[in-house]
Amino acid sequence: MKRIAFVVCLLGLSTMVGAASLWSGTWEMRDDAPDFRLTMTVEDVGTGRRLTYKLTSPATNDETISRIVTPLDGTDAPMFVDGMPSGQTMAIRMVDSRHSVTVLKFQGKQTGISKAELSADGKVMKVEDNNTVSSPNGMAGKHVAYWDKQ
């Protein structure tokens, strides 16, 4: 009986690890705008994740790097831009292995909510944003973005 419980426990852990690894990797946002390129690198860190966003302007070769480390439990995690606190936080909560909800805040005030859905094959991420006010990194209103795993 103990052996069965142990195997069931391992199967549960392998499902969690497999699901987490689907999110891990480098993602590029699809966009028709030729004036910038946005990539996101997702790394598993303990039970959470480190997200690194790289915004590159091909015309000027300027680059901005934003980072956040989240425990994925819905608590506010600070965002750093080029190594400095930005006043922004993200509270990311995993709904299940392929869905997450993020509450965005700037200086403690909610600026939006985004919902991410990962395709079953782990190659495409759909993110629906609903920004309640204009934030430093976006405009008010609803937006849908698609990210492709590289």
Account of the 3D structure:
The protein is mainly β and 150 residues long. The chain has a single domain (25-149), classed as Calycin beta-barrel core domain (Lipocalin), CATH 2.40.128. Helices cover 15% and strands 59% of the residues. The protein has one helix at 2-23; strands at 25-29, 37-45, 48-56, 63-70, 73-81, 84-96, 99-106, 109-118, 124-131, 141-149. Strands 1-2-3-4-5-6-7-8-9-10 form a 10-stranded antiparallel beta barrel. The longest helix has 22 residues, at 2-23. The protein is globular and about 40 Å long.
Summarize the SSE layout with pairings.
Layout: H1 2-23, E1 25-29, E2 37-45, E3 48-56, E4 63-70, E5 73-81, E6 84-96, E7 99-106, E8 109-118, E9 124-131, E10 141-149
Antiparallel strand pairs: 1-2, 1-10, 2-3, 3-4, 4-5, 5-6, 6-7, 7-8, 8-9, 9-10
What assembly state would you assign to the polypeptide chains in this entry? single chain
Unreliable stretches, pLDDT < 50, 5 or more residues?
1-20
**How does the overall form come out from the CA principal axes?**
globular
Write out the CATH superfamily name: Calycin beta-barrel core domain
Content of β-strand? over 45%
Second-tier CATH architecture: Beta Barrel
What is the domain total for the residues?
1
Radius of gyration: 17 Å
Distance between the termini: 44 Å
CATH class wording: Mainly Beta
Largest sheet: 10 strands, antiparallel, barrel
User: Strand pairing plus helix content: what structural class?
Assistant: mainly beta
**Tally of DSSP helical segments:** 1
